[in-house]
Amino acid sequence: MKEKICEVHKIVRKPMKIPIRYGLFEVDAELNEARQILFPYAFTFVSGGCEIQDDEEPTEFVCEECRKDEAGWRALTK
Ligand SMILES: [Zn+2]
């Protein structure tokens, strides 16, 4: 299998289970935009919509640097 690389941080992304978050929450346009450009592979959670399903947690390829950047971004914009 080919390694999955984060094109922002140039490091290998690792497969991790991502928690599903249910319910409606505010769409943060600024966060969404930053996410696409600055930390596309943070995958802090997956939106599961409003209905609870018993799906297994999905696996995504996570970039640890993206996660750090998202945390830093959140801290800055609070
Ligand atoms: Zn990254």
Structure report:
The chain has 78 residues and is of the alpha+beta class. It has one domain (14-77). Helix content is 29%, strand content 15%. It contains two helices and four strands; from the N terminus they run ββαββα. The strands form two sheets. The protein has a two-stranded antiparallel ribbon with strand order 1-4. A two-stranded parallel ribbon has the order 2-3. It is flat and about 35 Å long. Bound molecules: zinc ion. Residues 6, 8-9, 39, 41, 63, 65-66 line the site of zinc ion.
Quick description:
The protein has 78 residues and is α+β, with helices and mostly antiparallel strands. Helix content is 29%, strand content 15%. It has one domain (14-77).
Helix content: 25-40%
Distance between the termini: 40 Å
Largest beta-sheet details: 2 strands, antiparallel
Secondary-structure element pattern, one letter each: EEHEEH
pLDDT < 50 stretches: none
Counted up, domains total 1
Choose one word for the global shape: flat
Average predicted local confidence, pLDDT: 88
Radius of gyration from CA coordinates: 13 Å
Q: Helix count, per DSSP? A: 2
Task: Count all strands and give the number.
Answer: 4
**What fraction of the residues are assigned to beta strands by DSSP?**
15-25%
Q: Catalogue the ligands.
A: zinc ion
Strand order of the largest sheet: 1-4
What structural class do you assign from the helix and strand content?
alpha+beta
